[in-house]
Design goal:
The chain is an alpha/beta fold. The chain is built from eight helices and seven strands; from the N terminus they run E-H-E-E-H-E-H-E-H-H-E-H-H-H-E. It has a seven-stranded parallel β-sheet with strand order 3-2-1-4-5-6-7, sandwiched between helices.
């Protein structure tokens, strides 16, 4: 019998990189449900209406300090959304080793650091949800993104390994794999390039951040209690079959 993760007491949700784009949409969706939502940021302040914590996912000490801060103010994390990520695109022949390692350290190792830190509290409660924000390119590959695609592919193996280790503690680990999403990053695309990408998507449009957020809140709900080690595509059919 599984434990109810939707209790009358607000759950503590930590969204890394939750101050803009997909992360902000996810944080806002959980807040609308009545959860206590904390977003991590490396500089500045949290968006209005959300709690913030300073965290650099590339620094183990920073991650540890951030988790202690969150736990002292709100309690242990019930739901972790590992969303923080960067890109340093370039053709593989010209890609520097530092550009490769920087992306791995943020997107993959950073996700491991935060997931690992969330485990002690979840294990004590014998329940928890960890959601990794991957990408369709982790399944398809992408020219000029060998570093980024490698990290997003790596999240799948990470989630499934965690899922096998901690399933007996009622902790689930899943990956959301968005396709092209309407964010600040895609808003700068030329009309020609945008049309080219849209032509490859069966549904004929980019995804909204809110559509990704809807999948995240579902994976944290009681209805998704028996889903773990899954990769959920939110890509309009772009990665169909992968």
């Amino acid at each position: 019998m599984t434990e109810d993760t939707n209790s009358p007491v607000a759950r503590v949700v930590l969204v890394t990189g939750g101050n803009r784009g997909i992360g902000l949409a996810i944080a806002s969706a959980f807040k609308e449900q009545g959860d206590t939502v904390v977003v991590s940021h490396r500089s500045g302040e949290a968006p209005e209406g959300l709690h913030g914590v300073h965290m650099d996912v590339t620094d183990s000490e920073s991650v540890s300090t951030a988790f202690k801060d969150v736990e002292s103010r709100f309690g242990t994390v019930d739901i972790l959304v590992a969303n923080a990520g960067i890109t340093k695109d370039g053709l593989s022949l010209r890609m520097s080793e530092s550009d490769f390692q920087d992306v791995v350290n943020t997107n993959l190792t950073g996700a491991f650091r935060t997931a690992q830190k969330s485990l002690s509290g979840m294990m004590k409660k014998k329940k928890g949800r960890v959601i990794f924000i991957g990408s369709v390119v982790g399944l398809l590959g992408s020219s000029g993104q060998v570093n980024y695609a490698s990290t997003k592919s790596g999240l799948v193996g990470m989630a499934r390994s965690f899922a096998r280790e901690y399933g007996s503690r009622n902790i689930t680990f899943n990956v959301i794999a968005p396709g092209f999403v309407e964010t600040d990053m895609t808003s700068v695309l030329s009309d020609e390039l945008r049309d080219k990408y849209v032509s490859q998507i069966p549904l004929g449009r980019f995804c909204t951040p809110e559509e990704v957020a809807g999948v995240a809140t579902f994976l944290a709900s009681n209805e998704a209690a028996y889903i773990t080690g899954a990769v959920i595509p939110v890509d309009g059919g772009l990665g169909m079959g992968h």
